[in-house]
Each structure stands twice: as structure tokens, then as C-alpha cells.
Design brief:
Chain lengths: 149, 108
């Protein structure tokens, strides 16, 4: 492939480069570049969907499920919260992607219920006051945004 | 990972004696580790469960901002409360340095 910059020549330093290709060749070059960009983009899209399907298969094999919860035990969520549910020895663990808490139980439902209780408990802890280290501030803001009384 | 060596009551007792965590008992046992008087790390210990599953053990280590080896050491005795506090201070310094690095690299 020809070096694109070789098609341009600067008449003076700092001035706008001017195309030196013959007029009839410039549209051809442009369409060739457009074609290459388009085919690259479609390759990237194909690779993305391939990676997603591999990810899905791996998670399925490991028994990992991504799901969303819309309600806690006594409160509701303004926006659904993504959680990960995975086998854990003889039971299950549920984790919230954005929060440093977990739920565990012998059955998936138990793990999710414990996680919901934990989210409420953390929410109550953080809303009491601001007497915690700085790492909790974004978590407090996040919970204040999604939890509805 | 030494989850098979400890049960929920061992973990709770270690957190209370070494880290000074005071647990509340709502649904589960929840407690905060205080660093310089501020709530810094929040751990949940499942109530009514003797055995601790691997994922649960790892989650508790993460909650205390420790890796599995450090959490093993905390429970198995070598890691003292003072050493735990030193790890937390180093973590905070590391996070602060990373944040400052990000801020300065974002500047033109």
C-alpha cells in the first residue's frame, strides 16, 4: 500500500497540504481507503461477537450467570443492578458488580436474597453519615442514585 | 486458600480481637474496620453457616482489602492487627499515587 502522506506536498511550512494526485486518481484512492476502513470495521465487529460468544460459553461452562435485580428486600431500585451469580463449592455466591458486598447460600435464591439484604444494609450504613474513608464516597453516591426509599 | 481451616465463628473472633471490629447482627454479621477513627473496610460474615465456601472466603478477603494469602495469615495468626493497619495505609498511599498519576497524565 502506498504511503498516504506521499500524496501530499506542503508548499510552505505550516500551510495546508495540497493533494498532488491527478484529479481522476484521487476519488479512486479515497474509495480504496473507505473500503479498507469498512472491511477493518467489519473484522473488528466479527471478532467482538466471536469473543462475546466465547465469553458466554466459558461462563456457561463455569456456571456463571449475569443477571439484573430490580428490587431489594424492602426497597426498590431506580435502575436495575447487574449481579453475578456463580457456583461456590456446594453452594452459590452472588456479587454486585459495582459494590464490595456479596451474598452466599446453598441455593441461588438464598445467595441473591442475602445480597439484596446486604445492599440495603450497606445503604443504611452509608446514609447515616460521612464518617468513612474516601473510597466509600463514590459507592455512597452510587447507592443514593439507584436505591429508592 | 485455607477456607477449610476456619469457620465463620473463627473469622468473626479474629476480626473482633485483632482488628477491633464490632459486629452488628442484622441478617448477617456486619462490621467495620476503623482506620484513624473512620470506617474503612466493611466485612460480612454469614450467620448460621459453619463451613465457608471458597468464593465466600475470597469475598471476605476482598472486603477487608486483603489478598487471599494475607487473609490466610490474618486468620492463622502471623498477621497482627498492626500489620493489617500498615497494609491498609500502604493501599491508600498506592491508590492516592495512582489517582495523582492519572490526574497529572490527563493534564496537557
Amino acid at each position: 500500500m502506498a504511503e498516504p502522506l506521499s500524496y501530499f506536498r506542503q508548499s510552505e511550512p505550516g500551510s495546508t497540504p495540497k493533494a498532488t494526485l491527478p484529479l481522476q486518481q484521487a476519488p479512486f484512492e479515497q474509495s480504496r481507503i473507505d473500503y479498507q476502513v469498512t472491511s477493518l470495521l467489519s473484522s473488528v465487529t466479527a471478532m467482538q461477537s466471536l469473543l462475546e460468544s466465547i465469553d458466554e460459553k466459558v461462563n456457561k461452562r463455569l456456571g456463571v450467570h449475569f443477571t439484573k435485580i430490580h428490587f431489594l428486600v424492602t426497597k426498590r431500585l431506580r435502575t436495575p443492578l447487574e449481579i453475578i451469580l456463580e457456583p461456590d463449592d456446594e453452594g452459590f455466591t452472588a456479587r454486585a458488580v459495582e459494590l464490595p458486598i456479596y451474598g452466599s447460600g446453598d441455593y441461588p435464591e438464598d445467595a441473591v436474597t442475602m445480597l439484596k439484604r446486604e445492599i440495603e444494609s450497606l445503604y443504611q450504613d452509608l446514609m447515616e453519615d460521612d464518617d468513612f474513608t474516601a473510597e466509600w464516597l463514590p459507592i455512597k453516591a452510587f447507592l443514593a442514585e439507584i436505591v429508592s426509599e | 486458600m485455607r477456607n477449610a481451616d476456619f469457620d465463620a465463628s473463627d473469622i468473626k473472633a479474629t476480626c473482633e480481637t485483632k482488628l477491633g471490629i464490632r459486629f452488628r447482627s442484622n441478617g448477617e454479621f456486619n462490621g467495620w474496620f476503623l482506620l484513624d477513627g473512620k470506617r474503612h473496610a466493611r466485612i460480612t460474615i454469614p450467620k448460621g453457616r459453619k463451613d465457608i465456601y471458597k468464593g465466600t472466603y475470597a469475598s471476605m478477603a476482598r472486603q477487608l482489602r486483603l489478598d487471599i494469602g494475607q487473609f490466610d495469615n490474618l486468620l492463622a495468626c502471623p498477621l497482627t492487627g498492626e500489620e493489617y493497619e500498615a497494609i491498609q495505609r500502604a493501599n491508600i498511599e498506592g491508590e492516592r499515587a495512582r489517582a495523582e498519576g492519572k490526574t497529572s497524565s490527563a493534564k496537557p
